[in-house]
Hints:
Structural class: mainly beta
Bound molecules: beta-L-arabinofuranose
Low-confidence stretches: 5-46
Strand order of the largest sheet: 16-20-19-18-17
CATH architecture: 5 Propeller
Amino acid sequence: MRLRFPMPARRARAVPLLAVSALVIPVLAGLAPALFTGGTATAQSAAKPQAEPRSPEGKRYLSQPLVTSIYTADPSAHVFNGKIYVYPSHDIDVTKADDDLGNQYAMRDYRVLSMDRIGGPVKVNPVALDVKDVPWASQQMWAPDAAYKNGTYYLYFPVRDKQLDKNGLGTFRIGVATSKSPVGPFKADPKPIAGSFSMDPAVFTDANGASYMYFGGIWGGQLQRWKDGKFDPNGSDTDLGQDDQPALSGKIARLNPDMKSFAETPRDVQILDEAGKPVLGGDHERRFFEASWVFKRGGKYYYTYSTGDTHFLNYATGDNPYGPFTYKGHILKPVQGWTSHHSIIEWNKKWWLFYADTQLSNKNHLRNVKVTELKFAADGSIPTIDPFVN
Ligand code: FUB
């Protein structure tokens, strides 16, 4: 079995959170370090410089954690009223062993990060939504996203419900919560979004105001259990095991104007290869695993996603929000840690990739969010980013 979570080659000594916070981290990739006091980062410190952080293999990191006072992952970044807000998962330390189901990702709440500019101080805001305040949820608040419309902020979040499967775990559904503030607190609707399933919601709003939710993820995200349109509680824990067949696709559904319900039955987001054929299930460096994120640039729609067990962030382009999308390449090479989940925004006339690694802990379930500039070639292609500096 391909174990989803343990990565022996990437394991080494864990660096205590506070020890790293005390370091003076040099400016890398043009970004100031985030050092913390009381939950708010300061761009520089007067303390004497100490050693530059290195990976367990001795490599230098391309960029530094945005915050060090809590663990964060799966960053969905947005610009609201000129300010940058990041909606991450809030990782917590648990004693559960790494497994393919993702039991060690036992997050219980969300906290929003905010900043006036990239490279500036980052604020860790109070709890925005707690699992205990979501009536239908059991556990594991995974990667969220957010949207804004007509004075209301919407927080979309995947969490297991209380309907247990063969592993005694709930079924992932996607909930929605609202607030008048971008940092919450958010109030959850009493039920998950009707027709939603699996995890990793990402909401894209097109120039004409139509909003779409992309979602889904295989293995622990359970997408493979929905292959026949209804949930199979005894289905596979990983994928369909059909390497020579088209890979499972992420999903898309247009949202109703209320931003809280689907206007249509979710459809497949198809990824095609250069010959126009669907990427196959056995093609683990190109097939969809989780972490959909869509943005539009130069009239093209970029569908971006994680390949999970091969640890790449990839992109494919299309000419409308539904696709099909043609595979183009890797955005980011593997980071330190198992998961790779990201978002991409335009801010101050530049494009930015928010991602996460495990620099602070060297544990797969205790991640830290980072940001680096994303460049485009003249033809719209994306040069692959290495998360380490050579
Ligand atoms: O953080 C928990 C899960 O791991 C996310 O939902 C996935 O995208 C992966 O990062």
